[in-house]
C-alpha cells in the first residue's frame, strides 16, 4: 500500500462570521494599502498521512474519519480535501 | 447523595467546583478521571471548566470522545441532572448532548469579566429555585463562548423552552444573547459563565445569592443534604 498525504481544510460556512479573517482584512491588509483585496476567510488545515491502496481510497477514508470523529462541526464548518502531489 | 465532578486533562475549575459543592453546599462530591466509567449511584454530574486537551482542534471536541462521556450520556438519558460549565458546556455540545456550537468570541479575545445573566427557564434541575427573568451577576472566562445554532434549531430551542440563560447585554456575539441551554428533557444544562466562582460573598462583590440558587436548585431536585 502506498502512503498519501491528504490536506483537510476546515473553514466556516459562508453564512458564519469569521472575525479572524475580518480582522486580517480590515486591520492589516486594507491598512497596508492593498485595496483590491475584498475578502479574507481564515481556515484550519490538517495534513493526514495515510496508507491506502489508491488516492481515492485515501481521500474517502479521511472524509470518513472527519465525519465520524467530528473533526469539523457540520453545523458551522465545511471541509475540503486535497491530495498532496 | 453524590455529585460526580468529571476531570479531563486540562480541566482547571474542577477543584473550585468540588470546593463549592462540598464546603459551601455540603454535598458529597467525588472526582472522576475521564478514562474511567461512572458508578450508577451518582445523583448528579458536573463537567467543570478548563482547557481540556488544551483546546486542540476545537474546545471540547477531544474530551467529547472520552470513555467517561459514554456513561454521562447513558445517565443523562435516564434523567440524571448534568451541568456543564464553560469548557464543560463545550464538551456537552461537542458530544451531542446539547444542541449548538461555541465559536470564538467576536472580539477574538479571551474574555474574563463580570456579566449579568437573565433566567429564561426556571424548570431545570439547576434553575428551579430561581425566578423567571431573575438577574444573576456572574463572571465569564472564555475564548470560545459565542453560542450559535442554525435558524431551524433556534426555533426549536425557543419552542421547547431550551434557552436557560441569556446575557443581559451583548457580551461576545452569542446568537440571541444565549448564555446557556438545556436538552429537550431539561436535565442536561450547559452554561458559559462560572457559577462556582460566584456563590461566596468573599469572591462575589455584587451578590452571591442568585448563583447560589443554581446549586440550591440541584439540592431541591435531588434531595436532602448529606
What is the global morphology of chain B? globular
Strand percentage of chain B, roughly? 25-35%
Helix content of chain A: 25-40%
Shape of chain A: elongated
Counting copies of identical and different chains, the oligomeric state is heterodimer
Average residue-wise pLDDT of chain A: 94
Number of helices of chain B: 5
Low-pLDDT sequence parts of chain A: none
**Span of the ends, CA to CA of chain B:** 7 Å
Q: Could you report the average pLDDT of chain B, rounded to the nearest whole number?
A: 96
Radius of gyration of chain A: 16 Å
The profile of the biggest β sheet of chain B is:
9 strands, mixed
Short summary:
The complex is a heterodimer of chains A (85) and B (226). Chain A has 85 residues and is an alpha+beta fold.
Describe the structure.
- The complex is a heterodimer of chains A (85) and B (226).
- By secondary structure, chain A is α+β, with helices and mostly antiparallel strands.
- Chain A has helices spanning 19-29, 55-68, and strands spanning 2-12, 43-52, 77-83.
- Chain A is elongated.
- Chain B has helices at residues 14-24, 67-77, 87-94, 151-159, 209-222, and strands spanning 2-7, 28-33, 44-47, 82-85, 101-103, 111-119, 135-142, 146-148, 163-167, 178-182, 188-191.
- The A-B interface holds A 16-17, 19-20, 23, 69-71, 73, 75-76 and B 57-58, 61, 64-65, 94, 100-101, 103-108, 148-150, 153, 173.
